[in-house]
Amino acid sequence: MFMRIQFLGANRQVTGSRYLLEAGGLRILIDCGLFQERAFLGRNWEDPPVPPGSLDCVLVTHAHLDHVGLIPRFVAQGYRKPILTVEPSADLAGLVLLDAGRIQEEEVETKRRRHAKEKREGPHPLIPLYTQEEAKTAASLFRGVEFGERVELGGKAAVTFQEAGHILGSASVLVEAEEGGRARRVLFSGDLGQWEPPIIPPPEGMEEADYVVLESTYGGRDHREAAPVRDQIAEVVREAARRGGNLVIPTFAMERAQELVYYLGGLLREGRIPQLPVYVDSPMATDVTQVFRRHCRYLKADIRCAVEGGTGLFRFPGLQFIRDAEESKKLNKHEGPGIIMSPSGMCTGGRIKHHLKANIGRPESTILFVGYQGEGTLGRQILDGEPEVRIHGKRWPVRAAVRQISGISAHGDQEDLLRWLDGGAPRQVFLTHGEEGASRALGEAIRERLGWPTAVPAYGEAHELP
């Protein structure tokens, strides 16, 4: 009898990370993420490919929605056992899931009102994927562990989490198990950061493993070609100030928002950008910043000292964190200049859609993308130069300037990923969490440089691990 792995998401696409490992007499799910590409949204509503109640445990690499966003569905359908992750990720996941439940409830209500006004019915039932209450139930199952702590899973399996350098508390997951008298080590990279992240430590190198599941978001790119991130941000802010409109930044509430605040505060103190009002319009980003302060021992040493010393790492003149919905609505009347940051990073939901409606048609405004935009998302449509986009059921012309920062990424590029692969040769490297071209480009580089066998599994594909 061999171990077995089945790939149930993030296969030849970026979102929906979900892997079923059958090892040591256990059924272990690694991540349970939301599908966010438009072409695959229907998968979120499908019956789970594995009965949730049959799982022995869930392991979470980090708290981004494309890694945790379907957990409430699994819990609602019968999963009741612990969900293991690194301690900050447990706190962050609770925030992320509750926020996702709220957004889904709000968007359903918005669609109900719109359909009633238009006297029509949509093609799908108007119910949320899950509610805030279901998200709270799921969050209660999370259990925090430490980096480097070996946790017995029962049966003949154990797990160890190691720093992945992607966001606060992000981890690679090493599962050690015995099956049929054979001991095997299966390593899931999770999402890997660059080797010089601004706030958190860099990834730990790859642990020796028999099988590796490796992300490939930027498996075909080289970030080193880009100008320094700080210089790019300074240039865009100065240009936006000259234009006189707002600089609207779709951002992830977790890590990216904190990084941008860190960069903007530093540039302002150095006199490289003018002082503008900066609005972080997100209750969750506000809460996440508090998690950063609470778990500052997981930050880089110099950043940790700044936070512990109370020097105001996430504070500077003109910066406002906005929770209240009415205050958020007032920003839609703010003509600028100013900087408005709001989730979601791919413009798939949240307050950013309202800020886009207020600014996307204004030639004096600027929309700045600072993260990956999945295929089919609103953010990708804007970035790809669509002359009009659909927001809240209405077509809006794109007249604002559109800019993108290169190199500001929580994902490592091809060289970063190859550098991480610094252990003994595995029997197989499975490439996931990347569009097919990126995965295959990384696979070719691994074969050429290291001589290791690689595969790019399709959705639902299963492999025995002898």
Provide a descriptive summary of the structure in words:
There is one protein chain. With 466 residues, the protein is α/β, with parallel strands linked by helices. The chain has two domains: 3-221 and 410-465, Ribonuclease Z/Hydroxyacylglutathione hydrolase-like (Metallo-beta-lactamase, Chain A); 227-404, Rossmann fold. 30% of the residues lie in helices and 22% in strands. The chain contains 13 helices and 22 strands. The strands form four sheets. Strands 6-5-4-3-2-1-22 form a seven-stranded mixed β-sheet, covered by helices on one side. Strands 7-8-9-10-11-20-21 form a seven-stranded mixed β-sheet, covered by helices on one side. The protein has a six-stranded parallel β-sheet with strand order 14-13-15-12-16-19, sandwiched between helices. The protein is globular. The mean pLDDT is 93.
Task: Looking at this protein, list some descriptive labels.
single chain, 466 residues, alpha/beta, Metallo-beta-lactamase, Chain A, Rossmann fold, 7-stranded mixed β-sheet, 13 helices, 30% helix
CATH classification class of the largest domain: Alpha Beta
**Sheet having the most strands:** 7 strands, mixed
Strand order of the largest sheet: 6-5-4-3-2-1-22
Low-confidence stretches: none
Q: Topology, please?
A:
Elements: E1 3-7, E2 19-23, E3 26-30, E4 57-59, H1 65-68, H2 71-76, E5 83-86, H3 87-118, H4 132-139, E6 142-145, E7 150-154, E8 157-163, E9 171-179, E10 182-188, E11 211-215, H5 229-243, E12 246-250, H6 256-269, E13 278-281, H7 283-294, H8 301-308, E14 319-322, H9 325-331, E15 338-342, H10 352-359, E16 366-369, H11 378-383, E17 388-391, E18 394-397, E19 401-404, H12 414-420, E20 428-432, H13 436-450, E21 454-455, E22 462-465
Helix pairs in contact: 3-4, 3-7
